[in-house]
Amino acid sequence: MRALTFAGRGQLEWRDIADPVITSSGEAVVRPLAVATCDLDIEIIRGRSPFEPPFVLGHECVAEVVLVGDGVRSVEPGDRVVVPFQINCGACDACQAGRTGNCLSVPLMSTYGFGFGEQNTRWGGFLADLIHVPYADAMLIPVPAGLTAAAAAGASDNLTDGFRAVAPHLAQRPAAPVLVVGGAGSGSIGLYAAAQAKASASERVLYLDTDPARRAVAESYGIETLDHIPDRLDDKFPITVDASGDIRGLSLALASLDRDGVCTCTAIYFDPAAQPRLPLLALYTMNSTFITGRIHARRDAPALLDLLASGRFDPTPVTTRVVPFADAADALTAHDYTKLVFTP
């Protein structure tokens, strides 16, 4: 089969690799129906990440089940499923506790589409003809009827990342105002967070981004926008999100917290020479909560899919365009998108 491989900065190649095979009763093989870009992909392709080439790209997708092992009970050939980007067994203590992004049965950072060391190539990526799923019953999530593959593909990662940044906190503080500072990578997570906050009945959502196209998308959701990151805001927010990848954005998100507020940072700060400084005294005084780190995709994606199925939130305005697999390399290296969705 063919797979789109990141071969070095700005270099993408379709390479022939071995077809996946089922070697144990709990495994499955699936065929991608829609593969979405992650905000991190643009940084990988530009050579701004620590993930060493070569490896197959793609870690957000909806797929069709093609083959299952004898022990698989939750899915069967022909089913449409979301494939979380993290490998998880479902049985270890971490998975049982819902910490599926840190499954103890596989090495740390075992993911599709990127990783560290051996994990770069072991699991492959979704921009391929077929995908091997080692723990089918634990990992695969049925796509609700009525949802298109293109709309649900981001549930593997970015859509769910935006969801965890706002939805649980709005459930605890209904209608609370939300601040989102966007722009990291290709910029979809901040938009998803802001739009989901609006869909979850926040009384005010303020979205900051220097990119006019992304601000226009936010405004199409009825969201208030600002075209720069100011030194400070006059208002305080119980819920803030740093999806900026900019130290100034993170500083603003933290400084804008109201009493007992929570700030979730979905951005990654790779440069060791440019690490943010936390205002620890202010955070302590305000009883603030700061959350950062990778999501637990398998745990949280079902709730995100329920939101999509409800019709209260449509993620498709964030998608810049839908592109055939054959044109994926050119589309990715053009760097002119917020979100791409690839279809075979």
From TrEMBL:
Short name of one Pfam family: ADH_N
Cofactor: Zn(2+)
Gene Ontology molecular function: metal ion binding
Chain ranges of the Alcohol dehydrogenase-like N-terminal domain: 25-142
Top-level division of the source organism's lineage: Bacteria
Gene3D superfamilies: Medium-chain alcohol dehydrogenases, catalytic domain, NAD(P)-binding Rossmann-like Domain
Keywords of the record: Metal-binding, Zinc
Entry-linked InterPro entries: ADH-like_N (IPR013154), GroES-like_sf (IPR011032), NAD(P)-bd_dom_sf (IPR036291)
PANTHER family: ALCOHOL DEHYDROGENASE (ZN-DEPENDENT)-RELATED, ZINC-TYPE ALCOHOL DEHYDROGENASE-LIKE
Protein name: Alcohol dehydrogenase
